[in-house]
Specification:
The protein has 2 domains: 131 residues, no CATH class; 109 residues, 3-Layer(aba) Sandwich (Rossmann fold), CATH 3.40.50.2300. It contains 11 helices and 5 strands. The protein has a 5-stranded parallel beta sheet with strand order 2-1-3-4-5, with helices on both faces. α1 packs antiparallel against α2, α1 crosses α6 and α8 runs parallel beside α9. The mean pLDDT is 90.
Amino acid sequence: MDAHDAARRTRQEFAAAYRPYVVARLAELGIETPASLDAALSKGERWLADELAAFIETPFLDQRRSPLEIFQEAMKFPTQALAEGGIEPPRRDAGAIAALPGDEYDLAPASSRALGEAAWQAHLAWGAHKAKAFVTDVKVGWLGSNLMDRSQIEPIVKGASLHLERWANQEDVDAALAVKPPVMAIVDLEHPAADAAIVALAAGKVKTVAYGPHVDDVAMMRARSLGADEVHARSRFFRQLSSSLPRLT
């Protein structure tokens, strides 16, 4: 199971667990359910499914919440129904209040294990992939100065759950190689430091993809001779970039 499959499964299992979990939790707490609860749960199910759908399309580096935190936030719908129904909230300890101040009825699960075995296992698989992404070097370096190029490159890199780091000059390339080499480098052959950067990156065994104007055959042949792994004319480079990027799974 790759990272995207794990995320999709987490979304599916969390959405399926939502209503049964809330109903079981209310019964466990001995809370009387108002007539409006069914509509609130339907609204919560839709919200949760939509939020998780958007979440799983977000690269790991840009995720600011976890699936469990989104599930916890979805408790706002039954919470509102209970409050509007005049149901007295249960007594909560100080730790629970500090952790989730808006969870007045103590509905939010502390762990995905409370959602059932299938949801828990899916969440564990997703967490393992995210941990792998963060311990793996997820940086792609780009030596270039054309902002239009960057506006096309960055979304493609992010879509592969990677982070684009812009290098302005050869000093930036050398610093990156000294600290933590990227998983891949992209070099604009029109940049003044292109040749030196390709030599340094090749010496550092970093996969290097170079691109330049299709009319500049000499520059492209030189890039290949200096050690670039792939060399493309500009128009083709943008079309095939996603297939050149490494995968985190």
